[in-house]
Amino acid sequence: MEERLDPALVRMITAVLLGGILGILNSTMVAVGTDVLAADFGASLSTIGWATTGFLLAVTVAIPFTTWAVDRFGGRRTWLSGLAVFLAGALAAGLSWDVGSLIAARVVQGLGAGILDPLVLTLLARAAGPARAGRVMGLMGVVLSLGPVLGPVAGGAVLDVLPWRWMFLLNVPLGLVAVLLALRSIRGDDASAPAPSRLDVRGLALLGPGFAAIVLALSQAAEHSAFTTASVLVPLVAGVVLLLAYGAHAKRAAAPLIDLRLFARGGFTASVAVMALVGLGTFANLFVLPLYYQQMHGHGVLAAGLLVAPVGIGGAISMPLAGRLSDRIGARMLVRGGAIVALLAGLAFTWMGPDTAQAWPAVAALVMGLGLGFVGAPTMGSLYRTLPPRLVPQGSSALYMLNQLGASIGVVVVTLILETAGDAMTGFHGVYWFAIGAIVLVLAASPLLPGREER
Predict the structure, then answer these.
(1) From CA 64, how far away is CA 210, in angstroms rounded?
(2) Looking at the keywords, is Membrane present (predicted)?
């Protein structure tokens, strides 16, 4: 008979997921308000775009710091600190008086989200233990699936009835509820745990900015639809140099921020690679499907956002089931099956045309979400089965940074495909052939994931 989750664990999961979804929602919510913000502040669209870009860059910079902070201050205090920083940024964004103050507030908000995002996985993995990792990661997968989809929908709904400031101010009461729940349900860390190492300041100065520079270069490439501009090449070269310097530093350091020897574990490397590919495929879907509904069927922003929801709904349905099954039979078979289902959905999109009934893209999107859900939850669960508890924070940071990088690469490639295609429908098909290629790589990596005998 299947073991039921302890009520205290359920309360802790609820508190962590509520805080976690705030950061994920805010990464995509503001995009729908770009026109409104530009008009209100009298700024260009590219300038307002930095409210989102600054948020994402701050997330990337903060993630490595969380690896050390959770060992130094404990999961509970680090979580509450991340929530406090995030809420301060949200309040400041809601009260911002010009575009500069808005961007600065969004950077603060992103720093808070960068602490919360990897810590969600760390706290849940530690509380659940290896035997229930898949089941709990399946619940986390619901947030990961619905968050990016619901962000634009929630932003559009708020802008329909309230001033734009409420996109940020509504985070405050929700965040305070998350704080109260955390105070009641997240326990302090074991006082007998070994003392943490000193902060790897040099590693922090190289790793976070290095990844942030590459994400910036990719976002600029998406905006300009080219890799040859200075705004792309300068941060790209800087990011590569910083990451190479971090690699050299990590080999010599006694306690590097993220130990690169983690990647010598085949199961860990396969897990983070698969999750990066899932991020790539998911954001390709979220980027191109609204354009399809707007350009081929004439829908507005909010309607197009709602029609993309089946991708997230599919993942929200399948991830809890897949996570529970992975605790029994391992990840390998489930990931293969999910990848094949997602592959078939991608092929279905390549057969659709401008006159296709709108029900079919919705069905294909739902099936795509179901398939990717059977890939994501077992893969996240397997990652924490391959690591000892002391390495879980490092694993979470590596997972989130590579997932963020995969999503950024996905958006860039999708943009370039759409810009260089002869017509909109050809570009749409090209994007799904690209997504199919990513899913084929998932299938290729699946044999390295734990199977039934290694669960």
Answers:
(1) 11
(2) yes
Whole-model pTM? Answer: 0.75
Q: What is the pLDDT of residue 191?
A: 45
Give residue-wise pLDDT tens across range 368-377. Answer: 888 988 888 7
Q: Roughly how many angstroms between the first and final C-alpha of the chain, as a whole number?
A: 18
Between CA 292 and CA 285 the distance in angstroms is 10
CATH number of 7-188: 1.20.1250.20
The predicted model gives 237-244 an average pLDDT of 90
Burial 101-118 (b: 16+ CB within 10 A, else e): ebbbbbbbbbbbbbbbbb
Dihedral angle over CA of 277, 281, 286, 289, nearest 10? 170
Separation of CA 166 from chain center: 23
pLDDT in tens, 371-404: 988 888 788 777 777 777 777 777 777 777 777 7
Q: How far from 417 is each of 34, 100, 174, 194, 401, CA to CA, in Å?
A: 23, 33, 39, 51, 24
**Top-level CATH class of 259-455?**
mainly alpha
| CA atoms lying within 13 Å on the CB side of residue 419 | 12
Torsion sign (Cα): 326, 324, 397, 102: positive
